[in-house]
Amino acid sequence: VRPTDYIFPELDVLQNVTHPIDDCEHERAALVTLVRNSDLANMLHTIENIESHFNNRYHYDWVFLNDDDFTEDFRKETSEAVSGKTFYGKIPKEYWSIPEWIDPEAYQSCIDQMVSDNIIYGGSTTYRHMCRFQSGLIYRHPLLKQYDYSWRIDSDIQVMCDIPYDIFKFMRVNKKKYGFILSVREYLETIPSLWYTIIEFTEKFSQYINPNNLMNFVLDGEENYNLCHFWSNFEIVDLNFVRGEAYQAYFNFLDKAGGFYYERWGDAPVHSLGALLMLDRSEIHLFDGIGYHHVPFNACPVQNDIFVQNNCDCDQSTDHSWETDFFCNALFLQSLAHDNRVDNLFHK
Ligand code: GDP
């Protein structure tokens, strides 16, 4: 079947996109994974999955990043499994440690409180380094300089369907800058002051706020955050956006506010609010038809013709994409369709 013969999902019509036809042109793009040596077994399983559903036809590079040195064994096994070139980078120490503006005693008492409140990863400093790094520092890594797009692949994810087109070309042709597959609600206890800090950013740096933004997706009807965010363990981004002046100013502002450590801000709400504030609403894309699994949630195409066309290997009854309450994909589409900018305090 040639790409032109594919059935296009209704969602693509709604989002006004077309699927590119394969040609010999390769995008400047890479698959990017933050991973430890001890994750090798999971990593190989994930590589095999992404290769068989996508990359064995396109041979994109794969960049592996680690806060430690990669072992010879890790390099050998992964480079043999990837059909494109592989690159291995070490994260500079200052990108993986508590910044000097964080007060050690205040930090310790925040940690103690979060542990006693049983907040997920509340006691972990490493997890905080990981979230801070993924939130903004990762895009400064020299290994990513040569690319325009990255697809974040965590070490423990699975795609459940064939991807019958070049996902990076799709981004470029359709002028997309941020792509996601699932959106969920954040645990409020991990981000108590994030919303306030975001408002402060919009006041101090109003020049970076896109007048045609999609912030109405995350407003709860009043002026508060409804906690919806893109689940960033699947994420395709335009690197020129996230390493550009506006996004990096946004990241620096949040970093200085201290919430990556004093609270436990995740990279998912940080990326999401950045994209929602600073991109045009048409530049954010919900990918459908791919199928996805990362503990504990699934996306599995519910439309039978898409499910069959893309050889999906998942259980449609386990799909979380269209559930409401905790999940936000339906709300995302509604927000796109209903231009309620009039009521949106983020439209100047
Ligand atoms: P979760 O999805 O929020 O539970 O986070 P994970 O623990 O799955 O981590 C997200 C990604 O970062 C995965 O690809 C992990 O392999 C990787 N990762 C997490 N912690 C570390 C770490 O301390 N060092 C390195 N190098 N990678 C990490």
Considering the protein shown, what is the CATH homologous superfamily? Answer: Spore Coat Polysaccharide Biosynthesis Protein SpsA, Chain A
Helix content: 25-40%
Decide which structural class fits the backbone: alpha/beta
Low-confidence residue ranges = none
Distance between the termini: 48 Å
What's the helix-strand series? HEHEHEHHEEHEEHEEHHHHEEEHH
* CATH domain fold name: Spore Coat Polysaccharide Biosynthesis Protein SpsA, Chain A
Average per-residue pLDDT, rounded, comes to 94
| Number of β-strand runs | 12
User: How many helices in DSSP terms?
Assistant: 13
List all distinct small molecules, including ions and cofactors, that are bound in this structure. guanosine-5'-diphosphate
Alpha-carbon Rg, integer: 20 Å
How does the overall form come out from the CA principal axes? globular
Describe this structure in words.
- This is Glycosyltransferase family 15 protein.
- It is found in: Membrane.
- One of its GO terms (biological process) is protein N-linked glycosylation.
- The chain is α/β, with parallel strands linked by helices.
- The protein has one domain (9-16, 27-343): Spore Coat Polysaccharide Biosynthesis Protein SpsA, Chain A.
- The protein is 36% helix and 14% strand.
- It contains 13 helices and twelve strands.
- It has helices at residues 10-14, 40-58, 72-81, 104-116, 125-135, 167-173, 194-204, 239-242, 245-257, 259-262, 267-278, 304-309, 329-337; strands at residues 29-34, 61-66, 86-90, 149-153, 158-159, 178-180, 183-185, 228-230, 234-238, 284-286, 292-294, 297-299.
- The strands form three sheets. The chain has a seven-stranded mixed sheet with strand order 3-2-1-4-9-6-10.
- Helix 2 runs parallel beside helix 3 (72-81), helix 5 packs parallel to helix 11 (267-278) and helix 9 packs across helix 11.
- Bound molecules: guanosine-5'-diphosphate (GDP).
- Guanosine-5'-diphosphate binds next to strand 1 and helix 5.
